[in-house]
Amino acid sequence: MSAAFLVGWAVDAILPDFRDLAWRLAGVTVLVAVTASMRTEIRVRSATVSISTTEIGVLVGLAILPPPAVTLCAALGMFAAHAAARRAMIKVIYNASRLTLVAAAAGVVAKGLGGFGPGAGPATIATSFTFAAVALIVVDNLVGVLVMAVVSQTSPRKIILHHWDIRVAGLVAIVVLALAGVLFVRLDERFLVAVPVLAWSLNLAYSNRTRARSERDAWQKLAQSTDELNAVDLDGVLHGAVTRAAELFSADDVDIEIHFGTAAPRLVRGGTDGITYDGDPTGAPQHPGKVIPAALEGHDGGPDIGILRLRFRGPVQLSEREDYTLHTFASALCTAIRNAAAYTELARLADQHAHDAKHDPLTGLANRRRLQDEGEELLGGRPKGITALLLIDLNHFKEVNDTLGHAAGDRVLVEVARRLETAAGEEALVARLGGDEFAVLMRGLSAPAVAAHRAQAMLATLTGPIELDGMRISVEASIGIATAPSRGGMVELMRRADIAMYQAKRSGARTSVYVRARDTADVGRLTLGGDLPRAVAEQEITVNFQPIVDLATGDVIAAEALARWHHPDKGDLSPRQFLEAVERSGILPAFADAILDQALVAAAGWREAGFDLPVAVNVSPRSLLDRRFPASVAARLHTHDVPPDRLILELTENLTLSQLEVVDQVLGALREAGIRLALDDFGTGYSSLAMLSRVPVQELKIDREFVNAMESSAEAAAVVRSTVDLGRSLNLAVVAEGVESEHQRRTLWELGCTAGQGHLFARPMPADRLLATLRRGTGGRPGTLAPPLHDTGTVIRIPTLRRTPPPSQQEHLPHWPA
């Protein structure tokens, strides 16, 4: 309405002089139309700012026309320029109205200050021009900025600061060029023809500089944006990419939707002001307007991992440079998302592995490692109150596995773990040590009796029936209780709890508290544990060999490796003095490897010297729990070039280890590798026959106690006789230990025992000394340690004590490899 009023006012003012002003009106109108056509456009979100040099036409027009006429020319010229460009009618009307208002403001200011009339002096002209130019620029920018801010929903400050330096320089150039045009036109009005050329040159320079600045800023922003995408946090990558893309492409909103891997689809939306939505794409609100998508393409031709969308409230067409920038940004974003997702997965796996390393996979409780670590940390500091450890072992749990199966047994263990955690409380650490053994580390107790009271509460919790497939079973347990010692740390605390637990089992009591007076462990033996690593590293532990002899001929048929520790302070120690400390320590694998290496080196040396003797090595039951043990033994046999059948591994009886599945697998692997297995100290445990039916041994060794007592004890003689008969019936070699007299030798032979070892033949000795003894022999016969029981060719009457196997088994009698 204001623009129409101004146009009407201008027409009314110039009608009387229209004929005289016609060519000037036409010239200024054409000048305005030409300068309006030469515009530089800058996009702010979905709105476009057009920058032209129409100010030149208005200011020059004021020099040759009255202000009303200039207002009319401005309206007509702007309307003609935008209509010729086929712009939307609303934009044509807006731009024409805007320039009309600007021209009227400049004309009013110029006329009020004296104007540019023929009688105006230089000072009046300069003053009028200056203030008219200021009024024109102020009104033009004020109207343009306010309208642009409303249309693009952008703050006026941001619009004003956008390329402000270039715009200020352009306005200065426009004012200077307009002043030059005014001066030339006042000298000669025909110079009006040259003004459009000058305006075009100025607009071209301004456009080139604006375009160069925009491209430089765009590449800098792209580089900065892609650098900021190099984050390891997926949330940070997505949120940062949304805000950076909104700024980089001057978008109203930006969507990033991802869907790859096993993760649920996700959509993040926002703008330069922050994130407005982050969640399931189906729950995002719908936004109308123009959407420009860019796929987040997968690598190596794989499927897309998502899509980037630029949202605008109005129609927008990206330039070629913007389109290329968009695809570059999308590619960088795709890589950043994959890297962040990979890092997130690696971090999750690391956390999972760290959790698994310190937790029992079946029950989710802490495992032995975590119990050890937290216990050491607790005892290493200054704990408040009393620290106690409860060691819990389930009674008769093996019967559950044997009767109901391992799956049912696992369910029982899970339920036991749940009940223990509930009864122990949040301050206690409940751990499963393996099998059916649990531990509870309690801290901050007010008195030792509190630990015993809580142990009773745990027993009461465990005794409640457990439902298994319609059956109700009860669980019984034995608990050993120990409080933290003043020295020895977690290792000593666990040892004391272990002793207390076995005391509870032996006594039939449900709980037992550790009492030092009832600790039968040799304190000196415990101190050896700290010396063991040094002993293995400095080869203080050596191996002596006791020969195994054919009782009939006196020939040496094998040798048993016996460890000795040459302790620098305590002298020579036998295995009975330090093997328990070895098994309780963490150096058992290194200790076993050292003994095995020395034994195989000796066997290889004897073989090179012409005495191909098998060597027997004792194996700790704990070594049979290591699935890697067979491979380690096989590797050492290969290293020392010793055939597998030249190695005999002697196993001690154990009431529980033989029932473990892992032990069966290890023994089976050793047997398949060709390694011979022997059952040592046979007959000393009530599980002997059960073990013999399960363990794939090829040799039985009669314990020295039965050999020493068989002359005075009918029971001992019966054990020896039955063992020999059992071995013959099962096609197993039988070796008697502790043979110390010729009478024992002959009696054993008459019972059917073919081999023996003991002081009658030789005491344990180093490998080189045994080799020298073999070379020397007995009675001029190398490789023997005793004369034969009978001369060659002698007819032997078999005693009635010696039983002959059935003919079907005679050809399968066991024999020692030569």
What does this molecule look like?
This protein is α/β, with parallel strands linked by helices and 818 residues long. It folds into 4 domains: 2-217, Orthogonal Bundle (Arp2/3 complex 21 kDa subunit ARPC3), CATH 1.10.1760; 229-352, Beta-Lactamase; 368-521, Alpha-Beta Plaits, CATH 3.30.70.270; 535-810, Alpha-Beta Barrel (TIM Barrel), CATH 3.20.20.450. Helix content is 53%, strand content 17%. An 8-stranded mixed barrel has the order 15-16-18-19-20-21-22-23, surrounded by 5 helices. A 5-stranded antiparallel beta sheet has the order 5-4-3-7-6, covered by helices on one side. Strands 9-10-8-13-14 form a 5-stranded mixed beta sheet, with helices on both faces. α2 packs across α4, α14 (406-424) crosses α15 and α17 (523-537) crosses α18 (575-584). The longest helix has 38 residues, at 320-357. The chain is elongated and about 160 Å long. It starts with a helix and ends in an 8-residue tail after the last helix. The model is unreliable at 1-20, 654-659 and 800-815 (pLDDT under 50).
